[in-house]
User: What shape does this take?
Amino acid sequence: MDPLLTLASLTITAAALVTLGYAGLCWISPFTRCQRCAGTGHTTTRVLRRPRACRRCDRGHRLRTGRRVFNFFHRLRTEATR
Assistant: This one.
């Protein structure tokens, strides 16, 4: 067997496994912690000031990027078939 063919097949298999793993993660757990507020839902801008609601997430969790893409295409398909 050709070494380049073997390398290409291993690379494609690894990429497919990573993609399917991330898709499964987005399906099972669509939300992740917000990185700005570390999942608390509020941020502090200065020392000794009261915490404000996080503008990015508003509650500590946000949708994963993969789930956001899935929702976009699902909504596009639903609207197209109406």
